[in-house]
Amino acid sequence: MTVKVFSTLLAAIASAIAVFAATSVLPTDPTCSRTYTIQSGDYCYKISRTQNVSTYQLASVNEGIIAEDCSNLSIGEQICLGIIGHDCTHTYVVQVGDSCESIATVSDITVADIHRLNPQLVDGCPNLYAESTPTSEPARALNFDG
């Protein structure tokens, strides 16, 4: 499931990558606003959830660095979590049954703003991914500031 969900996310990113940058940002790049050092047991959704970075932003900023299936994380490696001026640190973790409308209602944000801050979402938000069973991947995090 990880490969399918992350691959779907990266396909959406390909059409909206201009929001952050056309190229990846190395942790040593001065435009990188914050970094994270890979720990044992890390995977992309865990990093997203624990570091308050959306899965979209994590993949966008590290395009070409993190594999589409998130299989090439190396313990001790540093990755960039955001770009100065485009680093959303307020996120919402999608829950089972959520829709863009329900998220907008409980979060006091408009659906239009959800789409603006999360350009990987398609109209109607059918590509929201949430934790559906205790053994599935952790829920996707959405950007909520910017």
Automatic annotation (TrEMBL):
Residues annotated as signal peptide: 1-21
Protein known as: LysM domain-containing protein
Highest taxon of the lineage: Eukaryota
PROSITE patterns: LYSM
Record flagged with keyword Signal: yes
Gene3D superfamilies with a match to the protein in the record: LysM domain
Keyword Signal among record annotations: yes
InterPro entries for the chain: LysM, LysM1-like, LysM_dom_sf
